[in-house]
Each structure stands twice: as C-alpha cells, then as structure tokens.
Automatic annotation (TrEMBL):
The keyword Oxidoreductase applies. CDD domains: AKR_AKR11C1 (cd19086). It comes from Paenibacillus agri. InterPro entries: AKR_Detox_Biosynth, NAD(P)_OxRdtase_dom_sf, NADP_OxRdtase_dom. It comes from the Bacteria. GO terms for cellular component: cytosol. Residues 16-296 form the NADP-dependent oxidoreductase domain. Keywords: Oxidoreductase. This is Aldo/keto reductase. Gene3D superfamilies: NADP-dependent oxidoreductase domain (3.20.20.100). GO terms for molecular function: oxidoreductase activity.
C-alpha cells in the first residue's frame, strides 16, 4: 500500500480507502457483522487505513457495523471519516438536519455508533451553499474540535453542484479536506475544484471512483439493476450512454492485462490533487482487487506511486 498526507491535516492516509455506503443496505445487499469484519480485516491486512462512512448510510447502520468492529480492534490503526447533515428516512430518503443543535446530536450519535471518542474527519455532507453559510454551525464544530471529539473538519461536495464556493471557503470554516465525485466519466472537479484544493493545501478524497460500478467493466450498455439497488434509480438513458462510453474506454485506454476497475482507481490517483480514492466493496475479493490498484505504477508529482 502507498500513503499520502491528507492536505494540512497531517493524517497519513492509504491511497486506497474503503467506502461504506453499501453497508447501509441501499446497494442491493444487506450485510452481516461477520461480512463487514472480514472486509475490514482484509483491508487492514493490505494496508488500507481509511474508512469513509456517514450518519445516513442507514440510520447510523454503517457506523454501527464499523463501531462494532473497531471496539474489537486497535482504534488507532484506523482513520475514520464520517459526515453530517442528514437523517435516514428510508431507501434513498433523507431528512435535512443542518442546525447547530441538530448536527451536535448527529455527532454524538455517530460517536456512540462508532464506539469511539473522536472522529478523525467530520464532513459537511452534500449541503447547499445556503446551508453551508451558517456561522453558528461552524462555531459549534470548532468547539467540538477543541474538545477533542473531532480531529479535522472536511467538506463532502454535493454531486449536484460545482462545489467551487464551498471549496474556496473551506479554510475560512476550518475545513482541511474536500470529498468530491471524481472518475473517468465525471471530470468536472479538474476545472476549478482541484486547482483550489492545490492552492489551499486541501486533501482530496475521490468518491464514486468506479462511477457507481459502471467502470468495473462488469456491465453492458443494456444492464438492468434490481429494486433496492441505488443504480435502479439512475436515468436509463444516461446509464446507457455512460456504459457505451465505458465500452469505448475499455477498448482504447485500459492496458491489456489490467482489470478495468483497478485501472479506473489508478486513473483517479494519477491526478496530483487526489490524495485517496474511496471505492465501495461488497466482499473480500473486491477489497483485494481495489487494494491492488495502489501498485499500478501511476505517477504523482513525477514520482511513481
């Protein structure tokens, strides 16, 4: 495994992390604690130290799986990132909870679920610019940093906006890392967000690096997804267009002998602004495959990964 500093946080994170939205049950599978334990054990064995979760991946369900695991392992071996701003109300249904008091309760609930005294990275989760401009919220969060409940603050940019205002304002609210959708099919952050991150020394976590699995190479343009899988709600025409593009990429860009999913993760990591990618996984085999992307020989700042 390879590691990079996450912006100005001082956190040394693995270039491959583990995303855990799937643990909340919205990707067509319900998980058991034993399955989660096996994936996290294999992740640790392979040198992965970054876990990304959220309050609304299930009603703190993903966090509880992780917390149960951490309670039986060395907490200091892991960098745990979670998020705030929403309440889980059902499959793909979220309640907006942005007041300082609401977020403080979310933080305490997350700490309880994660069975930890602190969160390494606590992230504003896909909120609007209006929700972001809340001095009381950021003052409360700063107090939690001072109290030791939060080590570092971050911003997880909504997929529906550019994220430019929030990225440019990150330092003003004490945030040191940006999480953003970035993959071979969705390159918008390269235009303004990544230059801002470089200018202000903000770490970058690239989420959805496999484009919701489309860049895994598993799916044909006419692929269908079962009810209960997030991808079943994607626009059918957009999905087909993206999968047609994936087929072209597989033919023209992916080197022979390299699995497309590994190539897609390595592709993200070659951008000098990106600190780590956080793909999801459904089993131990996917953990192993994801971790292998760290050794593809991609280059950052003139140096081999």
């Amino acid at each position: 495994m390879k590691y990079r500093k996450l912006g100005s946080t001082g956190l040394n994170v693995s270039v491959i992390g583990i995303g855990t939205w799937q643990f909340g049950g919205e990707w067509g599978k319900d998980f058991t604690q034993n399955e989660v334990d096996a994936m996290l054990d294999k992740s640790g064995e392979l040198g992965i130290n970054l876990i990304d979760t959220a309050e609304c991946y299930g009603d703190h369900l993903s966090e509880r799986f992780i917390g149960n695991y951490l309670a039986r392992r060395k907490r200091e071996d892991w960098i745990v990132a979670t998020k705030f701003g929403h309440g889980f109300k059902g499959h793909l249904q979220r309640e907006q909870l942005w007041s300082a008091d609401q977020v403080l309760k979310q933080l305490d609930d997350s700490l309880k679920s994660l069975q930890t005294e602190y969160v390494d990275l606590y992230q504003f989760h896909s909120g609007t610019d209006a929700e972001f401009e809340n001095d009381k919220l950021w003052s409360m969060l700063d107090r939690q940093v001072q109290a030791g409940k939060i080590r570092h603050l971050g911003i997880s940019i909504s997929a529906s906006g550019t994220g430019v205002h929030q990225t440019a304002s990150a330092q003003a609210v004490g945030a040191e890392a940006i999480q953003v959708v970035y993959n071979r099919l969705e390159r918008g952050p390269e235009e303004e967000v990544f230059p801002l991150c470089a200018k202000h020394n903000l770490g970058v976590l690239a989420r959805v690096p496999l484009a919701s699995g489309y860049l895994s190479g598993k799916y044909k343009p006419d692929a269908a997804f079962p009810t209960g899988d997030v991808r079943a709600n994607h626009n059918a025409d957009t999905r087909q267009k993206q999968l047609l593009e994936v087929a072209k990429i597989a033919e023209s860009e992916v080197p022979e002998g390299i699995p497309m999913a590994q190539w897609a993760l390595g592709w993200c990591l070659q951008h000098p602004a990106v600190t780590s990618v956080i793909p999801g996984c459904k089993d131990v085999a996917q953990v192993i495959a994801n971790a292998a992307a760290a050794d593809l020989g991609m280059v950052k700042d003139g140096q081999s990964l």
